[in-house]
Amino acid sequence: MELDFKYLVSRRRLLRAGACLVSTAVMGSRLSLASEVDEHELNATHGRASLAGADAPWTPVWAYDGMVPGPTLRVQQGRPVRISVVNALDESTTVHWHGIRLPNAMDGVPGLTQAPIKPGESFTYEFTPPDAGTFWYHPHADSLQQIGRGLAGALVVEEADPIVVDRDLLWTLQDWRLTKDGQIAPGFGSMMDAAMSGRVGNIVTINGAPPGDQTVRAGERVRLRLVNAALARMMALRFEGHRPIIVAIDGQPCEPREPQGGRIVLAPAMRIDVVLDLQGDPGSRHAVTDDFYDGLAYTLTSFVYSSEPPLRANPLDAPVRLPANPLPIPNLADAVRQEIVLQGGMMGGGKLKGVGGMVGMAMPGMNGGPAWAINGMSMTGDGHAGMAPLFTLQRGASCRLTMRNETAWWHPMHIHGFSLSLLARNGESVPHGQWQDTVLLAPKDTLECAFVADNPGDWMLHCHVTDHQMAGLMTVFRVT
User: Fold this and answer.
1) Which pLDDT score is estimated for 348?
2) How much is the pLDDT for 386?
3) pLDDT digits over 148-183, tens only?
4) How many of the other CB atoms lie within 10 Å of CB of 28?
5) 227: helix, strand or coil
6) Deepest in the core among 44, 115, 273, 283, taking most CB within 10 A?
């Protein structure tokens, strides 16, 4: 997915130059246009995709509009959106608009915020995205199978005045566990996956296809939107011969900076926007590698420069800092303190008190039982009615939340309905004015963050390694 911004840039400059000539009538029509509802329809259905390459068998998938990933929805910041979801599957589903700060009834958690969409039925989601940035959508029902079989898509909320780039690229990264004949492997929710690193696959795709070469031109500047839509695979991307600048994480602008150690770490459900000035020589090739797992590095794709002369001799002289989103700033002096402790999994991490603890030599996750807990309590599955909140916040209160990972495994913790201001990791301040809705905790990490409880309702907080969520690493908090 890419957009050519040459026309947009020149048009914007023209409008600025002629601003004094714009009539009142034209301004009125623009305001009217901005208030119009942006309508879309998505069909959750069955399809097939060429995930392993042209010479491999087609893979049966579950897909939005028959596409893997689903169609990229591009909407405008502050403009109302209405999305009708039609369920053509043989089981119930929902859609969660991951990272969007929206009304609780539109959050897509079955039982907790809405009734599941039954086969043959539809549900219309309506919200107005307050934040510009890169987001995504996916089911929150039977999550392991529905996401693992292909139901996911990108949601881009466009800024009113975007940064100047030559191209806007989107890479939706998905991870598949396929059999030799190209079928999606059975065994969703296995004991080993549930208690360890989750269902990591053996095929990675970019925008639903095996990663081929990415053709680029010397001298151009691109905005690359990275979306990790995998069930469990962590990624750490290195761009050989290039210096990517991170400009947003989870849709929220941050201070532009190069990634620490040159690696862009992207956990499941995270999104990172980078700006790349492509300064390689015409005809050159540069690998993009993923080396998150020790000893298992591989080349994801490669930038291949065309033989064309450079678009420009020097990098584009234009700012890359994105405009801030209207996030409420927590009042740390009066913040309510809450703590969640992640427990369980293989190799220690505490008892699962809410389900009676681990008995004898029983392995966590055995026979479909819980493998994980938060503060000693396990909530399994995707969500259901009557889930008791772990804590309650008064509307408008600031909350200082500590997350403590007592396990031996990595956990990307996702908060619904809010974005978190990162304060400190293992006692050291987090720089760069960073906000995220999915925060990655390494084994034994402690993360302090804060948010303003300005959005009423019962909200999920869970690990986005989907096996971990389904096996107990999930809780609910309430804003009244």
Assistant:
1) 57
2) 86
3) 999 999 999 999 999 999 999 999 999 999 999 999
4) 10
5) strand
6) 273
Q: Which domains does the chain have, with CATH numbers?
A: 2-158 (2.60.40.420), 167-305 (2.60.40.420), 332-479 (2.60.40.420)
Q: Give 247-296 as a 3 state SS string.
A: EEECCEEEEEECCHHHCEEECCCCEEEEEEECCCCCCCEEEEEECCCCCC
Quote the tokens at residue 228: 């990790």
CA distance 342 to 355: 15
Pairing of strands 38-49, 81-87: parallel
- pLDDT tens for each residue of 132-149: 999 999 999 999 999 999
What is the model's pLDDT at position 433?
Answer: 83
The span from the CA of 184 to the CA of 172, in Å, is 19
Give residue 470's identity as a one-letter amino acid code.
M
> Distances from the Cα of 81 to the Cαs of 38, 102, 268, 283, 454, in angstroms?
5, 11, 26, 43, 21
Q: What is the pLDDT of residue 128?
A: 98
The radius of gyration of the chain's CA atoms, rounded to the nearest angstrom, is 22
- Would you state the torsion angle of the CA atoms of residues 227, 230, 232, 233, taken in this order, to the nearest 10 degrees? -70
Cβ partners under 8 Å of residue 21, min gap 6: none
Residue with tokens 């602008």: 253
Count of CB atoms situated within 10 Å of the CB of 336: 15
Whether the link from the prior residue into 315 is cis, omega within 30° of 0, is no
DSSP letters along 402-442, please? EEEE-SSS-EEEEESS--EEEEEETTEE--TT-EESEEEE-
Q: Taking every pair of C-alpha atoms in the chain, what is the biggest distance, in angstroms?
A: 79
Please tell me the predicted confidence (pLDDT) of residue 366: 58
**Which residue, chain included where needed, has tokens 């794709």?**
301
With a cut of 50, which residues of the chain have pLDDT below it? 1-34, 349-362
- The token pair that represents 108 in the structure block: 């897509």
What is the SS3 assignment for 127? strand
Distances (CA, A) of 327 to 87, 201, 338, 471: 34, 36, 20, 32
